[in-house]
Amino acid sequence: MTQFRPTGFDVLPVVIKNLLIINGLVFLAQNTLVGPMSIFSIEDVFALHALQSDLFQPWQLVTHMFLHGDFGHIFGNMLALWMFGAILENVWGPKRFLIFYAVCGLGAAVIHLGILSFELMPLTNHYQQLLSLSKTNIPAFNEALLRFSTEHNFPLSRILNENDITLATPGLSSELMDLVTSFYNKSVNTATVGASGAVFGILIAFVYLFPNTYIYIYFLFPIKAKWLGLLYFSYELFFALKNSAGDNVARWAHVGGAIVGFILVYIWNKKNRKNFY
Question: Do the Cβ atoms of 178 and 186 come closer than 8 Å?
């Protein structure tokens, strides 16, 4: 099937409706249950954290999909979920659509978590080395700290200049190690939130099933779904491989969701060509 023609189309099918409601309520909770009176941080407990983080919990592979960073983040995800997901749920039915959504989101999280944890391994190894040297060998600690600063963008020079000190200043190792620990914890405790991985899986499934359907960018510029999907996936893959400093978008979750979504829809389509689009 290359173009979608609705027959008996439900504009807001049951799974989409409930996902929109749940995400909206969680986002409301994120923005109201904050401040000094809060019992706990929703992001610390339910956002996805790296394996190296003390905040990591297995349930975060699922719960992070219902949290979002800001209004633009949730609006973009929910709009795409409705635009493409509603069509898929009408075609597949609620049960199959929910399975697809969950598998894409979980698969995206696993891929993102695996790559993130792999990328953090050098930082973790160097941190453990510094921790050991700070207690036993100060000259070696200073040398290792210089390498750590260069390789992981730790602002050692700024710290030394602002305090008018040098590594030769006696008794600094414990204080510098405290600053390194704070820097390390901030790096490994960075939270990942959002339904983008699952939404990318839905987008790719739509592209696979309805490649010649026109999508209107900003409601004005028509482009076929297959070209939009290819451009969007290439864009995310490029920046995932580039791994730009300061890029706080979980690119590998997007790429992972698209890959898992494509594999799943391809397998389903191959196994059941008579009833599957």
Answer: no
**277 residues of the chain, pLDDT tens digit each:** 445 454 456 788 999 999 999 999 999 988 887 765 566 788 889 999 999 999 999 999 999 999 998 899 999 899 999 989 999 999 999 999 999 999 999 999 999 999 988 889 999 999 999 888 887 777 888 888 889 898 888 888 888 888 787 777 777 778 888 888 999 998 899 888 999 999 999 999 999 988 877 776 655 677 777 777 778 777 777 767 776 544 556 777 888 889 999 999 999 887 665 444 4
- CATH code for the domain in which residue 24 is found: 1.20.1540.10
CA distances from 120 to 88, 125, 137 (A): 37, 9, 25
Q: Residue 200: which of 152, 124, 264 has the closest Cα?
A: 264
Domain-located, residue 89: yes
61 and 197 in a common domain: yes
- By residue range, what is the domain housing residue 241? 14-29+39-118+192-271
Do residue 88 and residue 218 come from a single domain? yes
Is 210 within 8 Å of 1 (Cβ atoms)?
yes
CA pair distance 85, 98, nearest whole angstrom: 10
Q: What is the DSSP letter of 7?
A: S
Q: What stretches of the chain show up as alpha helix (H) in DSSP?
A: 14-32, 42-46, 60-63, 71-92, 94-136, 138-152, 156-162, 173-188, 196-209, 225-242, 251-271
Closest residue by Cα to residue 15 from 109, 108, 92, 110: 92
Handedness of CA 242, 238, 100, 11 (dihedral sign): positive
